[in-house]
Amino acid sequence: MIGEHSITASNQDPGPASHPDTEQQQVAYHVRKILELLGENPDRDGLQDTPVRVAKMFEEMLAGMHVDATSVLSTTFEETSQGPVIVSDITFYSLCEHHMVPFFGKTHVGYLPGKRIIGLSKIARLVDAVSQRLQVQERMTHQIVDAMTAALHPEGVIALVEAEHTCMCARGVKKPGSMTTTIAASGRYQDDYALRQEFLRMIGK
Ligand SMILES: Nc1nc2c(ncn2[C@@H]2O[C@H](COP(=O)(O)OP(=O)(O)OP(=O)(O)O)[C@@H](O)[C@H]2O)c(=O)[nH]1
Ligand SMILES: [Zn+2]
């Protein structure tokens, strides 16, 4: 178990490499170092467990790094659907790869099935898998479309992501409330204007 007793002060600690540490313990060790470098006392009451909390938080928020996005979509069903399937307002939290602070918002995914459909929850699981990584919003949007296209071979896929980036709100340019929208598409959603319009209308845009 790690915690206040296993992470010792820098002048006593021979360093992370000498411990038979888990990755979580290694991250916690370095978070403690960062707290020290920031001028904090990591041994004060409120901070004693913070290194481990932060390590666990990164594990949770970056869980998608270890998930193959396409494998999330491995269970599909043979079905001839007549029209598009649109799952809207899928909330997500991601971490901006430039600043390692959250960007978060909603993802809307639509596809026009070919011969197979997918369980609806798997689309939300896909959003989790690609968002729980160090990301940029554009890549996340494309990864959703790429995974859906590879797994289902549909007639087309479209994803629209709208997000607020805390690196733009809480620091730097400081523009709280600004929203970034990204769209990616494959197949018929790339050039069928009516299909794209229908998608936008269905998600309330
Ligand atoms: N395109 C894109 N840019 C992003 C995303 N998340 C953060 N950024 C931007 O990444 C850029 C990093 O720019 P840098 O100049 O290297 O970093 P910085 O000095 O901290 O920039 P400022 O945020 O302008 O203070 C910033 O403009 C961020 O707004 C994203 O998902 N997509
Ligand atoms: Zn950022």
TrEMBL record:
Which portions of the sequence form the region Disordered? 1-23
Pathway, per record = Cofactor biosynthesis; 7,8-dihydroneopterin triphosphate biosynthesis; 7,8-dihydroneopterin triphosphate from GTP: step 1/1
Q: Which residues form the GTP cyclohydrolase I domain?
A: 29-203
GO MF entries:
GTP binding; GTP cyclohydrolase I activity; zinc ion binding
In the record, biological process GO terms are:
one-carbon metabolic process; tetrahydrobiopterin biosynthetic process; tetrahydrofolate biosynthetic process
Q: Which UniProt keywords apply?
A: GTP-binding, Hydrolase, Metal-binding, Nucleotide-binding, One-carbon metabolism, Zinc
One Pfam family assigned to this protein is GTP_cyclohydroI
Provide the family line.
Belongs to the GTP cyclohydrolase I family.
Annotated catalysed reactions: GTP + H2O = 7,8-dihydroneopterin 3'-triphosphate + formate + H(+)
Cite the record's note on assembly: Homopolymer.
Q: Which organism is it from?
A: Alicyclobacillus mengziensis
Q: What is this protein called?
A: GTP cyclohydrolase 1
Name the coiled-coil region(s). none
Keyword ATP-binding annotated: no
**SUPFAM superfamilies the UniProt entry points to:** Tetrahydrobiopterin biosynthesis enzymes-like
Residue sites binding Zn(2+) per the record: C96, H99, C167
Highest taxon in the source lineage: Bacteria
Cellular component terms per the entry's GO annotation: cytoplasm
| Enzyme Commission code | 3.5.4.16
Which NCBIfam families does the record match to this protein?
Answer: folE, PRK09347.1-2, PRK09347.1-3
Q: Which InterPro entries match?
A: GTP-CH-I_C/QueF, GTP-CH-I_N, GTP_CycHdrlase_I, GTP_CycHdrlase_I_CS, GTP_CycHdrlase_I_dom
